[in-house]
Amino acid sequence: MIRRMEDLNVAGQRVLVRVDFNVPMKDGVVSDDTRLRAALPTIEALRAQKAKVILCAHFDRPKGERVPEMSLRPVVAPLADLLGVRVGFAEDCIGDVAQKAIAGMSPGDVLLLENTRFHKGEEKNDPEFAAELAKLADIYINDAFSAAHRAHASTEGVARLLPSGAGIALQREIDHVTAALESPNHPVLAIVGGAKVSTKLDLLKNLVKKVDRLFVGGGMANTFLAAKGTEIGASLCEKDLLGTAREILDIAGAERCEILLPVDGVVAREFKAHAAHRTSDLTDIKADEMILDCGNATVDMLADAMSTARTLVWNGPLGAFEIAPFDTATVEAARFAAERCSNHGLVAVAGGGDTVAALNHAKAADDFTFISTAGGAFLEWLEGKPLPGIEALKA
Ligand code: AMP
After folding, report:
1. Is the pLDDT of residue 374 over 90?
2. Which residue has a Cα nearest atom 10 of ligand 1?
3. Three-class DSSP labels, 358-371
4. Is 196 noted as a catalytic residue in this protein?
5. Which long-range contacts (CB under 8 A, 24 or more apart) does 170-175 make?
6. What's the confidence (pLDDT) of residue 354?
7. What is the pLDDT of residues 109-161, one digit of tens each?
8. Is 364 near ligand 1, meaning CB less than 6 Å away?
9. Would you state the pLDDT for residue 218?
10. Active-site residue among 3, 14, 18, 35?
11. Alpha carbon distance 70, 115 (integer Å)
């Protein structure tokens, strides 16, 4: 059981909240406040209980050095605007500076601490640094799913030193991913695409044990097609992984997971937008042709699979979606999934890497049940790995 914020008596307490403020910034100004917005429900709930809200986060990769361009200070103004209250800032996340700033807080105040990664102890999960963080507060709340796959002091170490629990945004992520993978309504269909099998081996091996059907698309499907003897011409393919692809097919067979592979492809001789192209049924691909997208027949097959599925887990594009028209299969399949979510109760959860960009590009993201922007943490969850930041919150 993961402890939750509601299980803790936060009223009037100093609460250290680990948030994800690793926001896109341009010239020292926050250019996308999605992650700030994600933290608002937890901050507001704590303020409503007159807690002193002490926010900590990392920004970028300063590697234990104080790098002025990687300060969290630019986050203060947009966060204060969103909250409609003053947000204080402490130039350091531990020590006298932080302690003084906290001593001056009144119930309901919000304070942001400077970048935790300015200290080497953060990424090393140094017990002394974690203890310094723990000194600042009575309670610890983790609200940063995207950092939960890292065993760092502000995500893991400190969680073991204070009464701790999951914040509202983290709970939401956990609940949705759990609903899709741990206790889903069957049949469950997984769609996995993207460039390479090599980056998704663990993910594929875990998913075949959990889902009823797995569609492999994108560049990585080529390795599977080649493993099954299809001539794929000059397509992206990891020849050293043909054996691994066969092994995954075997595991899937043993686990009664049906693997679906593309039955046609859009092929071109150049990897560039609007390159001359044709659709092939995969029996006649020339030596200099590359499969850059799935064809219509494959999209129809996927649509049928989505129509019978009650749960969908999606990671990775079905083709080279950044260059038109090789985005077509990704866009059509994403729109179909979105329609099934809106009108037929499909539960669709997506995330990781380019997936968010691909689904936004398809204008399908709003209708998905849940889209995780957590990247690495979402992928590690799909891989079935325990996430240290979440393990530390288990009772
Ligand atoms: P990933 O980060 O592993 O999810 O891979 C995403 C990348 O895979 C995107 O940049 C796509 O352009 C690329 N990709 C998908 N399908 C293909 C393909 N058939 N050939 C080459 N690249 C592809």
Report:
1. no
2. 320
3. HHHHCCCHHHCCEE
4. yes
5. 170/142, 170/143, 170/144, 170/145, 170/390, 171/2, 171/4, 171/5, 172/370, 173/145, 173/370, 173/372, 173/374, 174/2, 174/145, 174/390
6. 86
7. 999 999 999 999 999 999 999 999 999 999 999 999 999 999 999 999 999 99
8. no
9. 97
10. 35
11. 7
3-state secondary structure of 263: coil
Please, which pLDDT band fits residue 106 given cuts at 50, 70 and 90?
A: very high
Q: Which residue has the tokens 């953060």?
A: 122
The highest-level CATH class for domain 184-382 is: alpha beta
Tokens of residue 49, six digits: 């209980």
pLDDT of residue 353: 75
In Å, how far are 21, 73, 95, 317 from 68, measured between CA atoms?
16, 10, 19, 37
- Using only C-alpha atoms, the chain has a radius of gyration, in whole angstroms, of 23
Q: Which residue in 175, 129, 141, 184 sits closest to 43, CA to CA?
A: 141
Interval between CA 319 and ligand 1 midpoint (Å): 6
* Residue range(s) in the chain whose domain bears CATH number 3.40.50.1260: 5-171, 184-382
Residue 292 alpha carbon to ligand 1 centre in Å: 8
Pocket test for ligand 1, best of 321, 331, 355, 383 (most atoms within 8 A of CB): 321
Question: Does the C-beta of 316 come closer than 6 Å to ligand 1?
Answer: yes
For the segment 213-218, the average pLDDT, to the nearest whole number, is: 98
Give the mean pLDDT of the chain: 96
Non-local (6+) Cβ contacts of 217 within 8 A are 191, 192, 193, 262, 294, 298, 302, 316, 317, 318, 319, 329
- Contact 110 CB / ligand 1 (< 6 Å): no
pLDDT confidence of residue 251: 96
For the segment 168-177, the average pLDDT, to the nearest whole number, is 94
Å from CA of 327 to ligand 1 middle: 10
How is residue 376 written in tokens? Answer: 């690495």
Ligand 1 centroid to Cα of residue 222, in Å, is: 11
Contact 191, 355 (CB under 8 A): no
- Hey, what CATH topology would domain 5-171 get? Rossmann fold (3.40.50)
Q: State both tokens at 153.
A: 């002091």
Nearest residue to 236 via CA among 186, 315, 293: 293
Which 3 state secondary structure label does DSSP give 291? Answer: strand
